[in-house]
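Practice record 12: protein with 2-(butylsulfanyl)adenosine.
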Amino acid sequence: MLIASPQDFDRARALRAEIERLDHHYYVLDAPLVPDAEYDRLFRELQALEARHPELATPDSPTQRVGGKVLPAFAPVRHAVPMLSIRTETDTEASGAFNFDARVRRELKLAEGDPPVEYAAELKFDGLAISLRYEHGVLVQAATRGDGETGEDVTGNVRTVGQVPLRLFGSAPPVLEVRGEIYMKRADFERFNQRALAAGEKTLVNPRNGAAGSIRQLDSKVAASRPLSFFAYGLGEVSGWELPTTHSGVLDALAAFGFPVCAERAVLQGAPALADFHAAIAAKRAALPFDIDGVVYKVNALALQQQLGFVTREPRWAVAHKYPAEEALTTLLDIEVQVGRTGAITPVARLAPVFVGGVTVTNATLHNQDEIDRKDVRIGDTVIVRRAGDVIPEVVGPVLDRRIGEPPRFDLLARFPVCPVCGSHVVRGEDEAVARCTGGLFCPAQRKQALLHFASRRAMDIEGLGDKLVDQLVDAAIVRTPADLYKMGLLGMSMLAGLERMGEKSAQNLLAAIERSRNTTLARFVYALGIRNVGEATAKDLARHFGSLDRLLAADEAALTQVPDVGPIVARSIVAFFAEAHNLQVIGDLRAAGVHWTEGEAQATVAGCLAGKVFVLTGTLPTLSRDEAKAMIEAEGGKVSGSVSKKTDYVLAGSEAGSKLDKAQALGVPVLDEEGFREMLIKGVAP
Ligand code: IVH
């Protein structure tokens, strides 16, 4: 092996200094200086140099961040200065701040007229406490808190945390122990779990467990793969350094050494200012990028801290003023379901009442069957419930070591084969996470949505029947299904006139619009039914293909997939919809109430010079409106789609055409203007 030359030493030193500088900007200041590729180049050069000459590798080299060694166990570390805990103010109201200030003033023997005490206020991070020991500016040891006297040596793992400096900036004292919190940002936590899920690996329960679990990994490669962050908030043993006179001054000095110090901090005078800080942070809590469980107040002057001293293991000069916990444990009593406006069936946990996030929670969402399976929650389990900010409470997961016996897994479709609201069948598409009620026309939970869709312009086109009116009609029990609209008759006039904000004139107009809609087309009627996955274009295809409603009703999956653009998913939705007796009942009622259309022959293929061609419209045409152009295309057997893809045959573009035109050009799709389009209608398209 070659002995390293003095130049090699210099180069390694220069590379380390530069990489540390780049790390600080990237991890701590969140403002990268160079592109990742440039960083990688320097990093690889240093790695190669150290591999060739191991005598060049130092414990503070940035190459040590990647982890490697697997330890049999963590060695104990005795803290030179014990790691104290902090008194918690359980009173989450403003009085928590006043009580603390009153105690401090009493201990300091201050009279009522004396000036307010100055405090440093900061956040209480929800992670894992850590003590970092630097000797002559180099990180030599990282230890957990343990029992406060003795912790565990987790140096290898902590080195992998990018935000922890391996070497300090400026002239560092011979010994400097820095204390702070290792934590995981919420976005990092989510991203980590998404990846883990995709890879079929175990997910983390919450950011705090993520942080604590990573640092206590015996394999530092595992820790290196976890996205961890760090905030400094205090000191341990220090020698050879003249301390600043205040805690806020200490934090400023730590930031200058290169530590991340949370910007969300303040120097405040007296109790009312502390209470305001507590309230202001509470308002921001949900928007912070990481979890906190309170704020911390510390007497700012270090001399006063000394004077105040400790009781047992807690300093008298500091307090944690908490917020209501966002997570709590309770028992999952049962799983029920809720039916949404579109028929989505959502499993809901019934919980033993528990106080979490400031309110008593008895229900929490379980999202869907896949989530229940993934979390493996079972009825009877002790579960973690989370309510953060105003977000709907959710079940995070079970506490497995409290599970009694082996309760059966929950199977939504087995437990709820029919909709609890209307009794229609519940189905779940093969590739879908969500189970749905098939009684779209009939189900009270879906009534309002179904009526709005039924009346919409491209469906039955009942002008004036908007969401406010639908709310009123359904709430007053005047209308339950679309068929009821046509049954209102003369009585309807008096019923409508009784509704709020409904004059006689608008009641007449509405009844007239309902009357007019009786005479419709098969395509509009099919679209109006609100069958899942059946949009306007598919409804038209179905109407054209089958020609009559009865032929459509009789079609099985195989017959349906004969229709252009109807695949197995759409076919299954249609079959499920018409298999539901409740829906057939409403369709029968509609026909009995006089809703009608002209029926034609079944047409296997559409004649017309644009048969089968797919158009996309964009921009403003000189003379044609969008609807007119669309009607012309469809009259010739063509179709209009909303977005440009490889399947698009033509883009019809007017002025101010935007990204669709760009995309057409990128994909090489022919672009027509209105003139070209009219010409095409006359001459037809070349096959
Ligand atoms: S100071 C002498 N400041 O809270 C006081 N602790 O029981 C020593 N914590 O697990 C702690 N944020 O890790 C302090 N801004 C903060 C803190 C904080 C979170 C944690 C700490 C420990 C617990 C203290």
